[in-house]
Amino acid sequence: MDLLSAILDEAGWKNDLLTRDAIHESWGFQFPCEKSGGFHIITQGSCYARFLGKQFELKKGDILFISKGLTHELLSDPKAKVVGIQRFYEKREHQTKDSLPITTFVSVRYEIPERPQHPFFLELPDHILMRAEDIAAHHSLNTATTMISQELESGFGSDLILQRLTDILLYYVIRHWLSKHPSASPGWVMAFRDNHVILALQSMHKNPSADWTLESLAKNIGISRAGLANKFKEVLNIPPMEYLTRIRMDKARDLFMKEDTTLEEVALAVGYSSAFSFSKAYKRLFGVSPAREWKKAG
Fold it and tell me: How far apart, in whole angstroms, are the C-alpha atoms of residue 47 and residue 41?
């Protein structure tokens, strides 16, 4: 699994299809997203987006990704009355359909779990706007949006298919943004452009429970121990083994939520020889014992 896929998969974001319909009259909806993110994909017509004192038009093929908690509005025109998104279906039932719809769009919300998120997400802007004209005709983003549009127009679009397609779209949007926004400053955007760092990160994410040492990790990617340590310090400002510990502890926290899982089983699953050694590492990182975390999670 590549690094971006691993980060998105481990984030635990759960998607929820909010709307997938056409609107035939003036409309405006507010999306309260303080603790979530999401997509708006315009498949027909146009509308406006408004947040943080900014307002701009969205047209067919445009994609707006809200990457961080950000309450925002979508509306048919700047003077349209705005209501809560929960009234979407009520408004749809009372609209007339004698003419072509003003807008057809798909909105997907990503619920972000109540836990520390990967630092990569902190480097994303609060929103990413992708204009249809800026996406090459052959790009995978166009393929994904076309499939979403076709699924909607089929008349019996599957929620499951649409959810899977929007997960694919999430990956493509972030990957495209990374390719267009190189960074000369230390951080995760830079990490995606350093071959040695990204190979080391992918190795750790692929098999976090392996008996990694700085030496074995460096040998695995064809670099010296000092070279790997220096690259991590320059790019991510964190030692490789400390990052490995964080990956393991994040996995352990997820395992805590499963039933019939003992502390010993969790320790072995994330690469520790005993519950004692795991507990010491856990408390050193989070300042609380895993036993207390277990009780709180239960």
Answer: 11
Is residue 99 very low, low, confident or very high in pLDDT (cuts 50, 70, 90)? Answer: low
Q: Which residue has the higher pLDDT, 196 or 180?
A: 196
pTM: 0.82
- Binning pLDDT at 50, 70 and 90, where does residue 97 land? low
Shared domain for 203 and 285, answered yes or no, is yes
Q: Which of these three, 180, 201, 227, is where a domain ends?
A: 180
Which CATH number characterizes residue 37's domain?
A: 2.60.120.280
The range of the structural domain enclosing residue 208 comes to 189-297
Give the dihedral of Cα atoms 105, 19, 126, 150; nearest 10 deg. Answer: -40
Query: Is residue 18 located within the same domain as residue 97?
Result: yes
Closest CA to 14 of 42, 31, 37: 37
Average pLDDT, the chain: 85
Beta strand 83-84 with 28-31 is parallel
Are 173 and 250 members of one domain?
no
Same domain, 22 and 159: yes
State residue 155's pLDDT score: 63
Considering only CA atoms, which of 2, 71, 7 is closest in space to residue 33?
Answer: 71
Domain shared by 149 and 196, yes or no: no
Percent of the chain with pLDDT over 90: 40
**How far, in Å, are 4, 16, 88 from residue 1 at the CA level?**
8, 24, 38
Q: Per-residue pLDDT averaged across 45-67, rounded?
A: 92
Number of compact structural domains in the chain: 2
